[in-house]
Amino acid sequence: MTLMWTKSLVMIIIMILLLDSNSAGVRTLLPPPASVSVESVDMRHILRWRPLQVSCNTSSALYSVQFQGEFELTVLNDSWVDAAECQLIPRSHCDLTLDLGSDSDYSVRVRAKCGSQLSTWAVLSPPFNRKNSVLTVPDMKVSAVGDTLQVSFDKVPPSAVIRVTVWRSGNELKADVYSIAAEQAGLNIADLQEGVKYCVRARLILENQLQSNSTDTHCDVIPGSGPAWRTVTTVTVTIVLMSVLLSAIFSVVVHCDFCQTYFQKDPHPLSLPSVWDLQTATVCHEPEVCDLIDAMINSEQQTLKSDEDEEDEDVFVSHVDKQGVKLPSSVDVVDSYCSQLRESTAAKQSILYFYV
């Protein structure tokens, strides 16, 4: 009887062990993720794997990622660190750019979970080093503004340096090289020669001397005012046109009667001899009066000629003013008037002024 109880107890223990082993087998039935790889372009590191081909009864499969670098291996006693942004995620990729931050080799692993079931770890092989990141050719734009070339870039990695090479077309051996930070993402090259073609080429460089391929060469001509002969011609034509315009204005002023009247100075008054006093005027209506006047003038002229103190100068005939201009005498004025009056006795309201 005791033997039978002993055999039964052993059978129960064996069954319990078998059940435990079967339950453990259920927890590890999930296959590990396949095709684990890292895609690294322009220093952005993306871990990728193939999703599980089996379906979960409760929900979709979730994935978790861990990494181990030189620091974790030597300082943290060979420990693995969870990727903070890649724990129990439903997608089949994970961004490890911030986690893989040194130039050491990194071991990376990923596993799947479906409900209470877990897969084994799928390890990346070989380990990843960011030195193997692929740098793409930068997107460069070049434009000429005045005497300056403006060079700009898009989608540049944060830790990269842009090396820009500039030279005059046909003289690449004497090129100038500029280095700018990725944050700047632009370069202005000033004081370039007008009318000359300049060429630009650029590439990305990392601190570890990893380089991208060069961009295509972009050439542009610095705009200017044109050849020197155009400037000389423009100045010459301007001078000729101004000369013609001034000549036309001068000609109009000279031949304009109104302009001559406007700009003409008032004539100086005639100077009169001091021996004559201007007295009242006499109105002549008949030719006989003119004969009387002629007799009076002849008598006065003879009296003046006999005066020894007077100079030999006919004051009735002519007078000279201070500017040396010869003035008509009173005799001439009277003779002219009387001649006209004798020719036409019908003249009316004619006035004669003479000196007594």
Layout of secondary structure:
Elements: H1 2-27, E1 34-41, E2 44-50, E3 62-68, H2 70-74, E4 81-82, E5 93-95, E6 107-114, E7 117-118, E8 122-123, E9 139-145, E10 148-154, E11 161-168, E12 176-181, E13 186-189, E14 197-205, E15 218-221, H3 228-254, H4 257-263, E16 282-283, H5 287-305, E17 318-320, E18 326-328, H6 330-343, E19 351-352
Antiparallel strand pairs: 1-2, 2-5, 3-4, 3-6, 6-7, 6-8, 9-10, 10-13, 11-12, 11-14, 14-15, 16-19, 17-18
Work out the radius of gyration: 61 Å
Structural class: alpha+beta
Helix content: 25-40%
Task: Quote the beta fraction.
Answer: 25-35%
Specify the overall morphology.
rod-shaped
Total number of helices: 6
Q: Report on the biggest sheet.
A: 5 strands, antiparallel
**Which spans of ≥5 residues are poorly predicted at pLDDT below 50?**
18-27, 271-285, 308-323, 345-356
Determine the oligomeric state from the structure.
single chain
Terminal Cα span: 196 Å
Helix and strand string, N-terminal first? HEEEHEEEEEEEEEEEEHHEHEEHE
Q: What is the typical, i.e. mean, pLDDT?
A: 74
Count every beta strand, where a strand is a DSSP E run of 2 or more residues.
19
Structure in words:
With 356 residues, the chain is of the alpha+beta class. Strand 6 and strand 7 form a beta hairpin. The C terminus is likely disordered. It starts with a helix and ends with a strand.
